[in-house]
From TrEMBL:
Coiled coil: none
Gene3D superfamilies in UniProt: 1.10.1740.10, Tetratricopeptide repeat domain, Winged helix-like DNA-binding domain superfamily/Winged helix DNA-binding domain
Domain RNA polymerase sigma-70 region positions: 18-78
Protein name from the UniProt record: RNA polymerase subunit sigma-24
One MF annotation (Gene Ontology) recorded for this entry: sigma factor activity
Species lineage: Bacteria, Bacillati, Actinomycetota, Actinomycetes, Micromonosporales
SUPFAM superfamilies for this protein: Sigma2 domain of RNA polymerase sigma factors, Sigma3 and sigma4 domains of RNA polymerase sigma factors, TPR-like
Length: 405
């Protein structure tokens, strides 16, 4: 039974986005695509224990989901306006051309990231349709109620249908204007995989990080001269390279300074460094993702140059003066100028990051290093309450419990 559950879990991770995308292309309706795919997985849970796992789970799920979609259209065909959809369900004629790259999931993400949708809605819809996250997982990531998130996603799908947002990769002339929104969403999808927020999920969602990288590679093939596309891909590769060393065997987060560098993927690091060097050699002023990639390149070099990292954060702050960037800069300042200087910088961010677990975790570590254990313990408690990642929670709990009572 354990092997069966694992097979269904693996099928969900590997096939969810592909099946949803295939149905969205065929039926032109994200609601039908999502619900039929979900029903196919329910059928798998019911049938596979008796019938066994099929040789090709993806094909089995796609066929089953198509049947579920057609059944739904038949049920709804009492209204005249459903007749055309029913006919489309049985139409096996060749599909219309869909763009420069024939990839179902890339078309789906451009649909989910259409500029007609609000930015936060694009992220939520992509996490649901492409990432396969549950509504509750997405709600936790956004720190909102599950019902509110469900309504947001439902409204987004309805708007796509009502305004006939096309299911395709934009044309070459439209692509550059659309790609920045897609990159922002891919970055958040990757981050959800890198530091999963769900308490009942694996601390690292390799399926999400892998899919984000795959899609970033496709976008780079479309826009090989776009510096931010290259920067985001480099950032993902340099982060993914450390995945095997990020969580200990007992499920605890391992901080960068304590990771086993022999466990890092040298091939991904080499590719990420090459992309960073290429962008530096271009002479074009770097954007946000390129600077973040350069910071990660320094972190994955044989020796971490903290002064260089601070200089890169200073550049990033001029582009993106966000409190989270300032917080990350303070972490680097602690390594160069000491925890007291860094703590002063962190405390200045209190009003803007009070609900952000990493703010309290950073502050707790600085207070611990200064020997202010009671204050550190209180800060650890706040960080633990706000953290959703199981490995991070385990790490913060151990650090708190090591403080002298």
């Amino acid at each position: 039974m354990t092997d069966l559950r694992e097979a269904i879990t693996q099928a969900h991770r590997a096939e969810w986005a592909r099946v949803v995308a295939a149905l969205a292309r065929r039926f032109g309706d994200l609601d039908i695509a999502e619900e039929a795919t979900a029903e196919a997985f329910v059928t798998a849970v019911e049938r596979w224990p008796a019938d066994g796992v099929p040789p090709n789970p993806g094909a089995w799920l796609t066929v089953t989901a198509n049947r579920k979609a057609i059944d739904r259209i038949r049920r709804e065909n009492k209204r005249d306006d459903k007749q055309r959809e029913a006919q489309m369900a049985y139409d096996d004629s060749p599909p219309e051309p869909t763009g420069a790259v024939d990839d179902e999931r890339l078309r789906l993400i451009f649909t989910c990231c259409h500029p007609a949708l609000a930015p936060e809605t694009r992220v939520a819809l992509t996490l649901r349709m492409v990432g396969g996250l549950t509504v509750s997982e997405i709600a936790r990531a956004f720190l909102v109620q599950e019902t509110a998130m469900g309504q947001r996603i439902t409204r987004a799908k309805a708007k796509i249908k009502a305004t006939r947002i096309p299911y395709r990769v934009p044309s070459a002339e439209d692509l550059p204007a659309r790609v920045s929104g897609v990159l922002a969403v891919l970055f958040l999808v990757f981050n959800e995989g890198y530091l999963a927020t769900g308490p009942d999920t694996d601390p690292v969602r390799h399926d999400l990080t892998t899919e984000a990288i795959r899609l970033a590679r496709l976008i780079r093939a479309l826009l090989p001269d776009d510096g931010e596309v290259a920067g985001l891909l480099a950032l993902m590769l340099l982060t993914e390279a450390r995945r095997a060393a990020r969580v200990s065997p007992d499920g605890e987060l391992v901080t960068l300074d304590r990771q086993d560098r022999n466990a890092w993927d040298s091939g991904l690091i080499a590719e990420g460094h090459r992309l960073v060097r290429e962008r530096l050699a271009s002479g074009v002023a770097p954007g946000r993702y390129q600077i973040l990639a350069a910071i990660n390149a320094v972190h994955t070099s044989p020796r971490t140059d903290w002064s260089q990292i601070i200089a890169l954060y200073d550049h990033l702050l001029r582009i993106d003066p966000s409190p989270i960037v300032a917080l990350n800069r303070a972490v680097a300042v602690a390594e160069l100028d000491g925890p007291e200087v860094a703590l002063a910088a962190v405390d200045r961010l209190a009003g803007r990051l009070a609900d952000y677990h990493a703010y309290h975790a950073t502050r707790a570590d600085l207070l611990r290093r200064l020997g202010r254990d009671d204050q550190a313990r209180a800060a650890y408690d706040l960080a633990i309450d706000l953290a959703g990642n199981t490995a991070e929670t385990a790490y913060l709990t151990r650090r708190r419990d090591q403080l002298i009572s």
